[in-house]
Design a protein that fits this description.
The structure is a homodimer of 82-residue chains. Chain A has helices spanning 16-29, 58-67, and strands spanning 3-8, 36-43, 48-54, 74-77, 80-81. By secondary structure, chain A is α+β, with helices and mostly antiparallel strands. The first copy, chain A, has a four-stranded antiparallel beta sheet with strand order 2-3-1-4, with helices on one face.
Chain lengths: 82, 82
């Protein structure tokens, strides 16, 4: 399946627990869209979060993020990885 | 060591070979600054590349990227990851 990197802005002050809770919320429903959220990284000072996933489409990624309460600001197909 | 996600813009049209060559250029000299470039992902349409690394500082990450010929446009410490 294609890989995607999505980016959330305006998350300044996010805690480690907050990141885990958001990721768990995605994991709980990701199966509904055949999305697999693999990893996420957060810079709490700049308020940016990066999420790596495998999914049928970027729309599927966004639908899961929206239902989990944190829509992405950017979603990039990343066909090349090393 | 702290983790960093750095972002390169203006890379539209980047090929898979181009990403690999850039990553290899980093790997070749990363030891000079105790940086470990772990993974990189590219969206050739939007021209954006994401690089995940472990490093003593974001300045060390940028010095390696600069010497390799592709300075980052953003470098984020990402202390939280899941």
């Amino acid at each position: 399946m294609p890989q995607f990197m999505d980016v959330h802005h305006n998350m300044a002050g996010l805690t480690e627990e907050g990141l885990k809770a958001a990721h768990d919320a995605d994991l709980a429903i990701q199966g509904d869209e055949n999305v697999i959220f693999k990893q996420a990284w957060a810079d709490p000072e700049a308020g940016v979060v990066y999420c790596l996933s495998e999914a049928p489409s970027q729309e599927a990624v966004q639908r899961i993020h929206e239902r989990a309460g944190h829509p992405a600001d950017e979603i990039h197909a990343v066909p090349f990885a090393v």
